[in-house]
Amino acid sequence: MSDTPTAHPELLAWIDDVAALTTPDRIVWCDGSTEEWTRITDELVASGTLVRLDPGRRPNSFWARTDPTDVARVEERTFICSTDPDDAGPTNNWMAPDEMKATMTRLYRGCMRGRTMYVVPFCMGPLDAPNPMFGVELTDSPYVVASMRIMTRMGSAVLDAMGAGATFVPALHSVGAPLAPGEADVAWPCNDTKYISHFPQTREIWSYGSGYGGNSLLGKKCYALRIASVAARDEGWLAEHMLIMKLTSPEGQVRYIAGAFPSACGKTNLAMLEPTIAGWTVETIGDDIAWMRFGADGRLWATNPEFGLFGVAPGTDRRTNPNAMRTLSRGNSIFTNVALTDDGDIWWEGMGEPPAHLTDWRGQDWTPGAATPSSHPNSRFCTPIGQCPVLAPEYDDPRGVPIDAILFGGRRATTIPLVTEARDWVHGVYLGATLSSETTAAAAGRVGVVRRDPMAMLPFIGYHAGDYFQHWIDMAKGATGDAEKLPKVFYVNWFRRADDGRFLWPGFGENSRVLKWIAERLDGRGDAVETPIGRVPTASALDLTGLDVDKADVEAVLRVDRAEWEAELPKVTEWFAKFGDKLPAVLWAELDALRARLRDS
Ligand code: GDP
Ligand code: PGA
Ligand code: MN
Ligand code: MN
What is the pTM of this model? Predict the structure, then answer.
């Protein structure tokens, strides 16, 4: 290759190897320019993958429908390929690296025939970071290219910054749908055979068969969580499935809060929340991923490695998440598997009254009262974070922000109170390690089943979860050995339900009331009662000014029910037993102490 925009020898050699294996018709280097975006989205419109939305209402925005079998992350097809199966642990699928590479090499052979192979240089986090985290994705999907331009810092500037020597994560992606000469393409090419494979020792990613974001935008889950979690373990930092927000009190006191909730459990909403209590503001830093490193001051500083928002569409509305609606109204977005209105706009469940007619996510006519929802429950918007009207200026600062509190949360109809404060760091790690949530449509499989999802990282830990827990505990040693400087840990649950099935807590903007209590606790104020599970506010400790809510509901959402908690104990025992002697002994001790406190309560 002579006319290449880089002289990076490893990059050039890898591209040659992949091209020889996958035999694309042509290779295109992505520069990240507006012209390139226009060309690629025009091509996607021509091929039927994208439909251009009404430019008056949704400028430069597009509607995409996937194949109905390719709508979510596929956890059963996601592999951690460490040499030793013990390094992948009981929560990951494992295959030996050589075996996986042999299998996938057979699949990749000729798989880009009839297609273009795009070279997508990207950087996770700001390009001016002291240690920019580079990656290069090779993909045969122009939908992936367009999405990567929204979700990452991408293009020529990255290639220039890489020079001829920078290390990068090579990330190979194919939809697995070669075209014979003259064969017509389909709107959403993919393959029934799917592999999302990670090679943590060599820091490589190989993805095959899916075009869905979580499986194909390889900078996100694959790099910034699975591969980065391994780097973080080795180098003493944390790569986590967390939102990052800036909370400012009426007095102007700033608190930075990170929060880990499983997919489709409220991160994006909390990250851009519009407070309902006077004088408080929330600004967004990140909505899905936090990289947290110790600063020289001994505190944990968090950055958002992403550049866009890839958010759950259904439920997003002017009333629930007005800042997301404002972000989207600025255009430049891709909507996948939502419904299309007859006048070229988008609609999804939860966005007010449905229009009289829609084209649903399967491309069928849809009218109100239809048996199936118009939008897939895991339909997504993909939009530049720079368009968020409450974006904190710090979001782009390579130093990040010092984290005051970490929230763990899940979707639990019972048992878990609205908010609980951990007694100390190890107790906080226990809360994270035992975090549980009802499954959602963000991953293929059954929905609504309670499962343990430690630190909301079950699908994303790139190594043995027992070692991961130990790594979290070891963070207490920190940079300075001063555990006092670590964030305080809280456990939240916006999803507790009454017997009749309704949510006990109004959620969304009203969650600012919980944030206020957390801020007060960080100040050493705010009333809390010691319970066997941790510190829980009394109903009177929460600011409920102006909130139209039944006092009995507030008491119910805060309740620590001994019988419910005793029912959790055997489940936690069973969960911990999975990890054998890799489970840190202090976590067993936490469980024993909880059991004893419940008995004595
Ligand atoms: P993420 O995938 O963790 O980023 O979760 P999202 O913020 O996208 O929310 C997932 C779904 O949960 C959406 O349908 C939201 O409308 C809904 N949701 C988010 N926050 C709340 C809340 O506080 N209460 C309730 N009831 N639903 C919420
Ligand atoms: P989410 O991100 O956490 O916003 O749902 C996508 C995912 O985790 O699959
Ligand atoms: Mn996520
Ligand atoms: Mn989200």
Answer: 0.98
CA 423 to chain centre: 27
For ligand 4, the distance from its centroid to the CA atom of residue 311, given in whole angstroms, is 4
CA distance 152 to 71: 21
Please, which residues bridge with residue 534 across strands? 531
pLDDT bracket for residue 483 (50, 70, 90): confident
Which ipTM value was assigned to this complex? 0.99
Burial 382-406 (b: 16+ CB within 10 A, else e): bbbbebbebbbebbbeeebbbbbbb
Q: Is 416 in the pocket of ligand 2 (CB under 6 A)?
A: no
Q: Is 301 exposed, middle or buried (0-12, 13-18, 19+ CB in 10 A)?
A: buried
User: To test ligand 1's pocket by mutation, which of 242, 269, 321, 380 has the most ligand atoms within 8 angstroms of CB?
Assistant: 269
Coil, strand or helix at 234: helix
Pocket of ligand 1 (CB under 6 A): 261, 263-269, 287, 311-312, 314-316, 320, 494-495, 503, 507-508, 511
Report CA(56)–ligand 3 centroid distance (Å): 31
Burial degree of 381 (CB within 10 A; 0-12, 13-18, 19+): buried
Q: Report the distance separating Cα 563 and Cα 572, nearest Å.
A: 15
Q: Which two tokens stand for residue 419?
A: 């908010």
Q: Cβ(489)–Cβ(225) under 8 Å?
A: no
Q: How far is CA 532 from CA 248, 253, 454, 574, in A?
A: 31, 31, 21, 20
Quick one: which of 30, 38, 80, 79 has its CA closest to 55?
A: 38
Q: Tens digits of per-residue pLDDT, 62-86? A: 999 999 999 999 999 999 999 999 9
> Half-sphere exposure of 81 toward its Cβ, with a 13 Å CA cutoff?
25
8 close to 95: Cβ distance less than 8 angstroms: no
Average per-residue pLDDT for the chain: 97
The 8-class DSSP code of residue 497 comes to B
> Which residues are tagged catalytic?
265
Q: Which protein residue has the closest C-alpha to ligand 2 atom 6?
A: 263
411 is in an annotated binding site: yes
CA of 241 relative to ligand 3 center, distance in Å: 6
Task: Please give the structure tokens belonging to residue 179.
Answer: 């075209």
Structure token digits, residue 43? 């091509």
Is the CB–ligand 2 distance for residue 404 below 6 Å? no
* Residue range 416-467, pLDDT digits in tens: 999 999 999 999 999 999 999 999 999 999 999 999 999 999 999 999 999 9
Give the span between the Cα atoms of 435 and 268, in whole angstroms: 19
pLDDT tens across 235-267, in order?
999 999 999 999 999 999 999 999 999 999 999
**Per-residue model confidence (pLDDT) at position 7:** 96
Ligand 2, atom 1, residue with closest C-alpha: 263
Of 252, 258, 316, the closest CA to residue 285 belongs to 258
For ligand 3, the distance from its centroid to the CA atom of residue 87, given in whole angstroms, is 23
CA dist., res. 294 & res. 339, Å (int): 44
Q: How many CB atoms are located within 10 Å of the residue 368 CB?
A: 11
Please answer whether residues 349 and 359 qualify as being in contact, where contact means their C-beta atoms are separated by less than 8 angstroms. Answer: no
